[in-house]
Design goal:
The protein is of the alpha+beta class. The chain has 5 helices and 9 strands, in the order E-H-E-E-H-E-E-H-E-H-E-H-E-E. A hairpin with a 2-residue loop joins strand 4 (about 85-90) and strand 5. Pfam families: Acetyltransf_3.
């Protein structure tokens, strides 16, 4: 069964194979591979390449960068918010990514929402995104978020159905994106118990 985990070096080869499957397509929920330094915030910037991530030390640096994004006090580019990046895995296989943004900027309120996700092409239509979304809704509840905004393209029937099945209540559409508010899931687990 699929589960969400924090980025980890054990998934290096599977992550890179999935990257190749996406073949340059946008991957919501996976973050950027390149961010320019921002002297105004003290963010040092980073740049990763497909070839570079084949090296163990570079992949370790990549995983550390992803994990650092969730810490509120860490420097980040202007206009960016703390974000918990998670990988959807089954055993040792990377299936996709899902991200939980801790706050909403104006752009995220209009278009991006709190949660973004992508599933590698060979793992789609198997329920992995629904499973990961449920787990992220639990994590959001543990973090004290009562509800989250999730968006999808108007023509993405699969995402629309998944969000509605998770309890999403349609608010409106803006610039081709459907906007749904979803109540998070209360659990009795300690904060952070959902993921490893």
């Amino acid at each position: 069964m699929a589960q969400i985990v924090r980025p980890d070096t054990r998934y290096q080869q599977s992550y890179l194979a999935a990257h190749d499957e996406f073949d340059g397509a946008h991957r919501d929920g996976d973050g950027e591979w390149e961010q320019a330094a921002d002297p105004a915030t003290g963010f040092e910037g980073y740049s990763f390449t497909r070839r570079g991530l084949e090296e163990k030390d570079e992949f370790i640096r990549f995983v550390r960068a992803r994990r650092a994004e969730e810490l509120p006090g860490n420097p980040r580019p202007s206009g960016y918010v703390p974000c918990t990046f998670l990988w959807i895995v089954e055993g040792d296989e990377y299936l996709g990514s899902i991200a939980l943004r801790h706050e909403l900027t104006h752009f995220l309120l209009e278009q991006g929402g709190h949660i973004g996700y992508s599933i590698r092409p060979t793992a789609r239509r198997q329920g992995h995104a629904s499973t990961a979304l449920r787990q992220v809704l639990e994590l959001a509840g543990e973090m004290g978020m009562g509800r989250v905004l999730i968006t999808c393209d108007e023509d993405n029937a699969a995402s629309r159905t998944m969000i509605e099945r998770a309890g999403g209540r349609y608010e409106d559409s803006r610039a081709g994106r459907r906007r749904y508010w979803v109540t998070t899931i209360a659990t009795d687990r300690p904060t952070g118990a959902v993921i490893g």
